[in-house]
Specification:
The strands form five sheets. A seven-stranded antiparallel beta sheet has the order 13-12-11-10-18-17-14. Strands 8-7-6-5-9 form a five-stranded antiparallel beta sheet, with helices on one face. Strands 1-2 form a two-stranded antiparallel ribbon. A hairpin with a 4-residue loop joins β1 and β2. By secondary structure, it is α+β, with helices and mostly antiparallel strands. The chain is globular. Among the domains are: 71 residues, SH3 Domains (SH3 type barrels), CATH 2.30.30.40; 195 residues, Dbl homology (DH) domain (Dbl Homology Domain, Chain A, Up-down Bundle), CATH 1.20.900.10; 147 residues, PH-domain like (Roll). α6 packs antiparallel against α12, α10 crosses α13 and α12 crosses α13.
């Protein structure tokens, strides 16, 4: 269980807890002697902090120098060994841990779970790889090497299907293991679930009572908005988890733990667990706000005083705030382990099997919402690169780029044809025109409301509405206004991709309605503000077409200038600085599904 596991639906870096200590945070740092510490009426006794440990400055420097920051180590550490394998003629495969969405055609876009052939790993941060017929750069920290390079790797949870393990790996275990031993293994898993849940409740209680309660006493130091940013909805999570652990304990058989039936508890609370989505999405903001505050000494002393008063283990606040993110990631692993040691005849078997799928779905939903929120920055940057933009921002109605490409649009009257670039978002199709000389520059022309349209597949031949012969064509038709748009693709396969994209767009809209996904006005405005700040200096000089063609003929185009930033938790695609994606925006192949 301690190794990294990537589900077929959700790639997560998963680890078990170590007793009551949050995963990755069980190293003890910055120990010191403090004789007494008191918070009276919201005031912090500073003398308690300085006794026996020197000046405030010494204390602060000691704290800062030994304070731990935890994050994904990223890929690239094994590049020497990888390149040796590649140079020897071996094929090296890596598996995507996160989605890599890019608007730069020199980068390789992929989905979580995709298998990438690593062709060059000489650079620590960016590797060169291939998926089918697409090649490009990708962040090394977004992938992990496959455990077995010689044959397809199956992660542990995928080996459990219908409660039965793969014959090649566990046949001996299944038939050679006695019933008593298997019951004992199930007992161990049940005990782990119960004990880690109790420890988790204590962590949440400590955060709510040890930190939030004390922070609210200090209105001179914290605003309610700051507290909402730092702690998110962790109090809601605490209330939910208290009810959940009570439900687990009711199902826990103390005399015979292996007979416990806990699967139904996860099924009962699967909907409530979706509140973790809000917390996980806010967590990077919490880390940034904490980083800003801890540059001021009084906040460092205050947070440490809260920890000592609550008698919490020696971990900084950002470490405690990581715990809920890790917890929701761990449930699928625990359930997969439980299912492994549950006989099909056990009364809990079907519920555990259903609970495993349910918690995978919860994790998938959280991961998808995280990815969507990170994508709004990319969409805002894209819009800021479009010349002569008119009307409302894309983010007012959309949050996902479904597909993009070049099409011929035929309009009334005289059936005039125009070559245009189209970008299909949820709810709308945006039409742009390429600059005649600088083909990397796009001008806004129009947009179509997809909520009012139905897509019609048109056979090759003469079209009655437009009275012309068409090939690889389809229409968008509005029944209310009788508005008709005719489009032609260059090749049949391109037409099929567009037809599939329109289906995906409708499916995405329906799914968002069912799950209640939405982006707040604050998030939209912030994304557009960030994009305008990055864009105010003007666009970079365009790459000339001959030089661009030369680059694309090379195996290794210019290495991306942006480096992926590491992130404290590993739930979705790590953020990284935006690249100058508008240089070559005419080829957005990573978005094609």
């Amino acid at each position: 269980i301690t190794s990294a596991v990537a589900f077929d639906i959700l790639p997560l870096k998963l680890h078990p807890f170590s007793q009551s200590t949050p995963t990755g945070l069980d190293c003890v740092g910055w120990k010191r002697r403090i004789s007494s510490l008191v918070i009276t009426d919201g005031a912090l006794d500073k003398t308690a902090l300085t006794d026996d440990v020197g000046s405030e400055e010494d204390l602060y420097e000691d704290f800062r120098s030994s304070n731990h920051r935890y994050g994904h180590p990223g890929g690239g550490g094994e590049q020497l060994a990888i390149n040796e394998l590649i140079s020897d003629g071996s094929v090296v495969y890596a598996e995507a841990l996160w989605d890599h969405v890019t608007m730069d055609d020199q980068e390789l876009g992929f989905k979580a779970g995709d298998v990438i052939e690593v062709m060059d790993a000489t650079n620590k941060e960016w590797w060169w790889g291939r998926i089918l017929d697409s090649e490009g750069w990708f962040p090394a920290s977004f992938v992990r090497l496959r455990v077995n390079q010689d044959e397809p790797m199956e992660d542990y949870p995928l080996k459990v299907e219908g409660g039965k393990e793969d014959d090649s790996s566990s046949g001996t275990r299944r038939f050679g293991m006695g019933q008593t031993t298997k019951d004992q293994m199930r007992t161990n898993v049940i005990n782990e679930i119960i004990s880690t849940e109790r420890d988790y409740i204590k962590h949440l209680k400590d955060i709510c009572e040890g930190y939030i309660k004390q922070c609210r006493k200090r209105a001179d130091m914290f605003t309610e908005e700051q507290l909402k940013t730092i702690f998110g909805n962790i109090e809601d999570i605490y209330r939910c988890q208290k009810k959940f652990v009570k439900a687990l304990e009711k199902k826990f058989n103390k005399d015979h733990p292996h007979l416990s039936e806990v699967g139904s508890c996860f099924l009962e609370y699967q909907t409530e667990f979706q509140i973790y989505s809000e917390y996980c999405n806010n967590h990077p903001n919490a880390c940034m706000e904490l980083s800003r505050l801890t540059k001021v000494n009084k906040y460092v002393y205050f947070f440490e005083a809260c920890r000592l008063l609550q008698k919490m283990i020696d971990i900084s606040l950002d470490g405690f705030l990581l715990t809920p993110v890790q917890k929701i990631c761990k449930y699928p692993l625990q359930l997969a382990e439980l299912l492994k040691y549950t006989n099909p005849q056990h009364r809990d078997f079907k519920d555990v099997e259903a609970a495993l799928n349910a918690m995978k779905n919860v994790a998938r939903l959280i991961n998808e919402r995280k990815r969507r929120l990170e994508n709004i920055d990319k969409i805002a940057q894209w819009q800021s690169s479009i010349e002569d933009w008119e009307g409302e921002d894309v983010l007012v109605r959309s949050s996902e780029l479904i597909y993009s490409g070049e099409l011929t649009k035929i309009s009334h009257p005289q059936a005039k044809s125009q070559q245009r670039m189209f970008f299909l978002f949820d709810h709308q199709l945006v039409c742009c025109k390429k600059d005649l000389l600088r083909r990397d520059i796009l001008y806004y022309k129009s947009r179509i409301n997809m909520d009012d349209m139905e897509m019609l597949d048109i056979e090759d031949g003469k079209d009655k509405d437009f009275n012309i012969s068409v090939k690889n064509a389809f229409k968008l038709h509005c029944q209310d206004t009788e508005e008709v748009h005719l489009f032609c693709a260059k090749k049949p396969e391109q037409k099929q991709r567009w037809l599939k994209a329109f289906e995906n767009e409708r499916r995405q809209v329906q799914l968002d309605q069912e799950t209640g996904f939405s982006i707040t006005e604050v998030q939209k405005k912030q994304a557009m503000l960030n994009a305008s700040k990055q864009h105010h200096t003007g666009k970079p000089k365009a790459v000339t077409r001959p030089y661009y063609d030369f680059l694309m003929r090379q195996k290794h185009p210019t290495l991306p200038t942006t480096l992926p930033q590491q992130q404290v938790f590993m739930l979705a695609e790590p953020k990284r600085k935006p690249s100058n994606f508008w240089q070559n925006i005419s080829r957005l192949t990573p978005f094609r599904k």
